[in-house]
Amino acid sequence: MRQVKEVVLMDDLEFRRRVFANPGTTDKDVKDAINRDSDKARLKASLQALDHQLCQAIKVPVPEDLAHKLIWQQTTEEFNKHKRKSRWFIAMAASVAFVAGITGTMIYQYEPENIGTDALVHMRYAEMEIPPSAEDLDIQQINAKLAGFGGAFSAPIGDVTVANYCHLNTIRSLHLILNTEQGKMSVFVIPHKDNMDMPTSFADDKYHGESWSTEKANIMVVGEKNANLEPMMEKVKSTIIFST
Amino acid sequence: MTSQVYSVMKEKQKRYEALVHAFHGDIYRYAYWLTRDGSIAEDIAQETFLRAWRSLDSLKDEKSAKSWLITIVRRENARRFERKQLDLVDIDDVQVTDDAFHAKQEGDHEELRILIARLPVDYREPLLLQLIFGYSGEEIAQQLELNKNTVMTRLFRARNQLKDMLEQDASSERGRTNG
Fold it and tell me: What is the ipTM, given to two decimal places?
């Protein structure tokens, strides 16, 4: 009686379904069926042989240098990151020399704590800054840097050619340089710090800038003297998000 | 502090290299059989491992890393189709593919390779996961977000079609030799 029941459970169709789906199966009911029926045993053996061949056939040759390339591309990515940083340090050094120069030889017109002044100084050197690659940075790359300040852009804000950390008034800030229809523009994201003098607008003979404050950071947009900053400010305001 | 950062970086680099060595072959082959094109497969493998490097900290163990890599390959492959949406031709309908495949593949496995490439992707993919990665029906179902019965049916049909095609080829071969 019990045997009849098993035979009903494991009919031909079910047997085929099971061994075709997995010729290597070691399920007990499949084994039992094989032991009782040599045709089933032959079918399973032939499918296992086919699988063996399939496994061989699927092993197409892997390009010899692939592993090397995969490791190399990652090293290159890291290297480029560092290179970008060190380029910035050269610009920083130039920037420091410049500030020392004007403080020594001219009457310093701006308050020393005025962060807008620092931004303007940076602007002069922004022009010297060579973009690390011909390609614009994509939003992921920018957001990766902005993430350090708990922020992100929800959409691209334009052709960002440089995104680097810099120190404005000793505050580590993010400096983005963009190519716009109105020339080069910079967006600075500056985390809040006590006693920071943040002018809402500032200018020198070449550049002018505007700033506003968000919950997590101050943001400045700086452009050339006659550039209209409004569109860029709007774009930044509508896309920048800070995590709470 | 700097040396600490350095040793963390070194550790990360080591983990990445281990991941590359463990999986690059299988990932390349999986991409190859999805796309049936060596150079596209190489591109996909590169993109996949670059993403792996960026997310390395979240890839805890080898098993989850494997499944994660497979997911990225599938996504990259799908993205390729999105990009080409307008001039997309269903490759399954293009008989020319067989010839290109034929010319490229040498050796004993040539015939089987052509037949595997001819399988519809819905049947080919679970079969690849089973044969390349040793996945069980359950694991394939999880990876492809299908239910297990569907997976078992597709695996059944994949081998069934392969067997049919092999028999057809064998009989046409006999016909040619005899005639």
Answer: 0.83
